[in-house]
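Appendix B.2, paired examples.
Example (i):
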Amino acid sequence: GAKSPFWIDLQGSKGVYHGDNLNVRWLSGAQGKISSDHINAAKCRLQLFDLVIADKLYDHAVAKVMCPLNGWKDSSYCVDEIPKGEHRSKPDPLENKTDPLFIGAWVERLRPSFEIYDYARILSWKQMKE
């Protein structure tokens, strides 16, 4: 079947798809190994967005930013109420079930993604305050 040009672009020189750290790859254009330059380029690209909405701030962003900007008044999305059970701690699905060395290797491999996600959350929160 036909392949999307996006997936073809992400194939390495050996035809291996680099599926890790996609947020860094999309924002920086990296196709091979991720470097600190790619992370910095991704952060710069994020700064160019008019609005960055991190997942944990989504409901608040819609109610406090998107609704007023678009004149939405009668939508249930425009009510900034947090349900009582929403922020309860959830059990860690990896606790006592996965090898800690595996988790450490996984976190290290995805460190660039975590760094970009944390930076996006900081930008999102800063934009909400403005």
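Example (ii):
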Amino acid sequence: EEEEEEEEEADEDALNALWDAIGMGKIAEDAQWLKMMYHNAKRKRLEPKGKLAVSIQIVPWAEVEARPVGNAQDDPNTNPFLPPPVGRMSFSFNPLSILKELIGPETVICIICICCCVMCLFALMFLGQYYVTAYTMIQSF
């Protein structure tokens, strides 16, 4: 019975981690959900566009000076701690880094190895022609 409870807790923790990863996890106790609305001018009505979890704390000036915080995720990143965004792609002008983001680093390494092997085969093919020509010329003397 204890094993079943531990397994259920592990399943619940995994599910909560998944919800947190996609930004749909539990919110802080002092936070509230705000409905985001869009005014559709064609239909002349408000349409729901999602929800935003908001938490606001009003603190005395002495506490503000005692515990400074940085902008966004800059140091010091405390009170509240802002974790790095999850699931975002990093943009780069390097095509290999974009490829790595799209298909994963292991697949990129396999593709690079295959390209290197193909280039080595082409080099051997072209250099082999010169080798055969030089060998034939040496044998004719």
